[in-house]
Amino acid sequence: MTASDEQESAPLLEAAPAHSRPRKSSYSTLPCDRQRCTKACTHGSLSDPGYGAADTVHNLKRDFLINGCGAGGGGGGGSGDGTPPRADSPRLGMRPDRLVYSWCDMNAFVTGEERGQRWWRRLRPGRAAEARDAENGAGRPAHPVKHILKGVNGTAYPGELLAIMGASGAGKTTLLNALMFRSPSNVSVSGQRAVNGFPVTSNALTALSAYVQQDDLFIGTLTVKEHLTFQALVRMDRNIPYEQRMRRVQEVITELALTKCQHTIIGVPGRIKGISGGEMKRLSFASEVLTDPPLMFCDEPTSGLDSFMAQNVVLVLKNMALKGKTVVCTIHQPSSEVFALFDKILLMAEGRVAYLGTPEGACNFFKEMGASCPSNYNPADFFIQLLAVVPTREEACKQTIELVCDAFQRSEEGLRLAAEVENVADTQVKAVMAGGLWGENPWQTADASCSPYKASWIAQFRAVFWRSWLSVLKEPILIRVRMLQTLMVSLMIGIIYFGQELNQDGVMNINGALFIFLTNMTFQNVFAVISVFCSELPVFMREHFNGMYRTDIYFICKTMAEIPIFIAIPVLFTSISYYLVGFNPSVDRFFVATAIVMLVANVATSFGYLISCVSTSVTMALSIGPPVVIPFLLFGGFFLNTGSVPEYFTWLSYLSWFRYGNEALLINQWSGIDHIDCMDSNSTCPRNGQVILETLSFSENDFTMDICSLFGLIAGFRFLAFLALLVRTLRSD
Ligand SMILES: Nc1ncnc2c1ncn2[C@@H]1O[C@H](COP(=O)(O)OP(=O)(O)OP(=O)(O)O)[C@@H](O)[C@H]1O
Known about the structure:
Keywords: ATP-binding, Membrane, Nucleotide-binding, Pigment, Transmembrane, Transmembrane helix, Transport. The chain crosses the membrane at residues 510-534, 555-578, 590-611, 618-640, 703-727. The chain has helices spanning 3-9, 34-42, 53-67, 115-123, 128-136, 172-179, 202-208, 224-235, 242-255, 277-289, 307-322, 336-339, 359-368, 379-386, 394-410, 412-433, 442-449, 457-474, 477-496, 504-545, 551-581, 587-614, 618-634, 650-653, 657-670, 689-695, 703-728; strands spanning 101-110, 146-156, 160-166, 187-195, 198-199, 209-212, 295-299, 326-331, 344-349, 352-357. It is of the alpha/beta class. It folds into two domains: 3-214 and 300-449, P-loop containing nucleotide triphosphate hydrolases (Rossmann fold); 457-728, no CATH class. The protein has a six-stranded mixed β-sheet with strand order 6-7-8-3-9-10, sandwiched between helices. The chain has a four-stranded antiparallel β-sheet with strand order 2-1-4-5.
């Protein structure tokens, strides 16, 4: 590119002094090469003036080894005077308070592959080596579609509020997700992430940090206070007493101006009216601030808030920073007042770093490049506009961005930063090589044994069960709508099939009505589970990845809390319609029929869980649900005689709850019936119950087997659903 090209493509920079004029280079030729980055990043860039130099390194590392990874809360394992912890001390029992988080050479690619596909490709014989080689080369996946983070480096210090800024699509959220190990499954990330100079993994980071994500996800039937109480129960350190947790909940409610709506239902947009959008934003923020984490990440914490509330939220972040926390947030167009609260800013453009340093330094940097921020102009707006890609001038804007990013790497500030990082890294590498106190990485040694969960298994169980129970009670789809639905359908069936008699016509109608019982119980439950459980899954996923509770606990609690509903509905249904239709009048047969319908309802529920857990969205679950249920329905013995099932489908018929339910209900109905009125001498008229069962290829001897099979399917489908959920919640390190 010639000088004139540069001027044309970057009009804002035309006045830049010759010495600071950037030279064109690509991210792959960064001065900080891969090896150096690894060293610098993983061994720390602890050059913060407030912490500065070797003493700081020593102190932070000492805190680390004393306090370790924060699964617990109270006592640390060390003496606190810098001596290493005793061998028997709970070294990992308390989290350190001051953390330097650094990241180096972060690259992110959209792969066009979901996580499952990627695993499959790696597992395929002959492809594993190819995939590994490809992914090891500069972290570039084998089939990248788009490069969205390009060699991003940075450091966030305790006591500082670092704001990541940039135009829409610059890569802010992608960077934050990558820093938190929360990238979507179709995004492949590489790079080093380190806490106080030690490489950190997902579990360890989860235990130390909080992450306010851009979209607000809640169980909408809870009130604001119930939600925060639940958060306090599972997120605060395990040895904090209940009263103290509740005091903290109240504090946060006041701090974030949620007092007015603390007893209001959160709501589900478009379904249940609840608190306002701004209140929701503040609530998600409150949920994270509750635990007072040493490391805090917020993605657009102010979006949707008015300027006063936005400032309030940033003030809370600033106060956290002032207390020695490390706070990183992305922010879109902050007001001048909000901008003035930032200690450091990281400007991003097209997935690269355009500037990292103090806000004043940014003004000077751009001034030196010939693009000074006009007085009376919000510097944040100025930087974002300067680094935005305008649709009509795409090429020119991209060239400008490249020039700015290259210039930052070569600028005094950029070089000083790199040099400082390398100096500290060298000091630490020497210490590590000397086998000194800091020769061990607490994050790697901690990670295997370090749980990301703050609460014990029992405490998690109690809290999650409490919330699941509350949400079942308050979920209109589960209780009110389904009760009404059951009442209406059972009455309708009762009226349509009213008063059947034991004659030739009655046999057909009774068999039909029994099959309708099964069909209704199946579809009603499968869809109820899909619409409630499936739509709650994103909340579960986020909370699980936030280190709040385990997958098994969620699944067990959810299942247990819903059991009463899935018992009450079949009982109500059978009680209304059984005698209206005129089934076998013996009372014990009524109870057996109710129990069978109940079992079928629960198999359908388990199947609904399975469909929900293998689907990526409610829409997908609703689309795959009916087609998958149909084959099972066909093998029920009503539309196709059980004896006529093609051999190659026999295995599938063994999974059909319709088959077991239908056979059990028919045996319950017809066994012991010795006489059926036949109006004429028609040979197709069954003379007794035994003949009916034989005609359908059912046998009274199979009754116990049918009941056991229904129990087996309840357990089997539920176990598969749990496994599917478990696979979805595997953490990627
Ligand atoms: N999972 C994904 N699949 C495909 N493209 C993605 C994915 N995540 C991010 N991108 C793309 O990467 C680029 C950066 O996205 P990102 O969400 O990080 O931007 P941002 O700076 O946070 O924008 P905004 O301020 O609008 O939220 C965008 O072009 C976006 O379309």
